[in-house]
Amino acid sequence: MAKYTADAEKLLQLIGGKENISSVTHCATRMRFVLQNPEDADVKEIEMLTAVKGTFTQAGQFQVIIGNDVQEFYNEFTRIAGVEGVNKDEVKTDAKKNMSILQRMLAALAEIFTPLIPAIVVGGLILGFRNVIGDIDLLQNGTKTIAEVYPFWNGVYSFLWLIGEAIFHFLPVGITWSIAKKMGTTQILGIVLGLTLVSPQLLNAYAVASTKAADIPVWDFGFTQIPMIGYQAQVIPAMLAGFMLAYLEIGLRKFVPNAISMIVIPFFALVPTVLAAHVILGPIGWKIGDAIAHVVYSGLTSSLSWLFAALFGFLYAPLVVTGLHHMTNAIDLQLMSQFGGTNLWPMIALSNIAQGSAVLAIIFLHKGNEKEEQVSIPATISCYLGVTEPAMFGINLKYLYPFIAAMIGSSIAAVISVSSGVMANSIGVGGLPGILSIKPQFYLIFAFCMLVAIVVPFILTIVFRKYNILNKVDDAPIRTFGAKEFRTSSRKADNL
Q1: What is the maximum alpha-carbon separation in the chain?
Q2: Per-10-residue mean pLDDT for the chain, 496 residues long?
Q3: CA–CA separation, 248 and 185 (whole Å)
Q4: What is the three-class DSSP state of 139?
Q5: Topology with regard to the membrane (predicted)?
Q6: Residues 412, 388: contact at Cβ < 8 Å?
Q7: Bridge partners, 58 (sequence order)
Q8: What is the pLDDT of residue 202?
Q9: Handedness of CA 251, 252, 255, 261 (dihedral sign)
Q10: What is the separation, in whole angstroms, between the first and last Cα of the chain?
Q11: Pick from 99, 196, 130: which is nearest to 341 by CA?
């Protein structure tokens, strides 16, 4: 640990001293601080430290990129600073004091959907595979599917729906559980609430549109009747019900004596919530979800779809920087429920690829910068696998021009994707593997979109650097495709 002693001491000083640290932890590659006064941190000097490969601030946390030795650095830093580290959940809680109300709302949304993403990704891949073997006429001169010709694959097609149905039709169970977990309330009550929204005794949400009003089953209370409608795959009804249950339980805890809390709290939290979910929250949430989905879908299928796509493709990366991108998960899921797929998510995958390609161009331009490559190479790989934050905060935003180049490339690829009607089965791995979640009939055109998202940002980044477009900080020697290197520090962008 001695090799990090000097840098740890300097970092403590540059971050504003021990008294400026509210809490600290680390993840796989970064030190994560919540600072009393974030403006006291000398970012430029911190980034000059040998052990530091970059910094960025996100969700109220000041994060210092160290690399794979972060555990060793962290141990030395906490020893020198005389502070005790906390776990990541405690840091997130502490960081909320540095966040606006909007940022807190978005952070809450992210915390709800993040635990669900692995299942949704798997579900998307399963739906894509089922489409290939059971819904596309590939055999016997394009007249039969693989499942129709081969009994084995017919069995696979049928079996995989067991998993697909569990993930998407029963999604409200995951949402209400996740809300209970996030709010610190009783998780099993969240699960029970979710199950009451998708119970087999209810009319399946997918069958509501084709069922006559007189044929919809009801609970008859004599003085009133309540439609027995399920909320399979519905996002907003589940969220409204989940939050009502959580806040009821939290409120009841304040005045119900411990001696009877085990009986009183679950009953008076769960029963009113289930009733409200089917009488008020469910119908309202359904209409809100429908409205949002139709607005987005209409924007992506109207005569101005190219403009919508261009703007979304261009602005998605800045949304990630602000944290606003978390709202797209709910929209994607609503689109899947309403239209059997999402044309929004493919653009997100393309944006991730574009950011990675811009970093790839920086690697080419700055070849030999070993310190930067410790950030840029893993960041590129991370982008191509769907995680863009290391690339954007560690490289692209630092120089700006690669960030803009990626936004332009993403915008062009998004226009092609939307104009071609590309649809994904569901949310997937948001980088190169994202093609596995695309509906099979769009594989070729989406592959072309991916190529655009790779080539355009790469070329634009090199062009922007060569002519100092949007470049105010990068004056390092760069490489061309020939053997000759050139330096452009005397032609700063300030003169453009």
Answers
A1: 87
A2: 83 92 84 89 88 78 83 90 73 66 72 84 83 83 89 94 91 94 94 96 88 91 92 91 96 93 94 96 91 88 92 91 74 87 94 95 90 85 83 85 96 96 87 88 95 97 91 66 46 37
A3: 10
A4: strand
A5: Multi-pass membrane protein
A6: no
A7: 61
A8: 94
A9: negative
A10: 47
A11: 130
Query: DSSP for 350-395?
Result: HHHHHHHHHHHHHHHHTTT-HHHHHHHHHHHHHHHTT--HHHIIII
Closest CA to 106 of 419, 323, 379: 323
Q: In this predicted structure, what is the pLDDT of residue 94? A: 67
Q: Which of 27, 264, 295, 451 is catalytic?
A: 27
CA distance 255 to 103: 31
Cβ contacts of 93 within 8 Å, gap of 6 or more: none
Radius of gyration for the chain, computed over Cα atoms and rounded to the nearest angstrom: 26
383 assigned to active site: no
pTM: 0.76
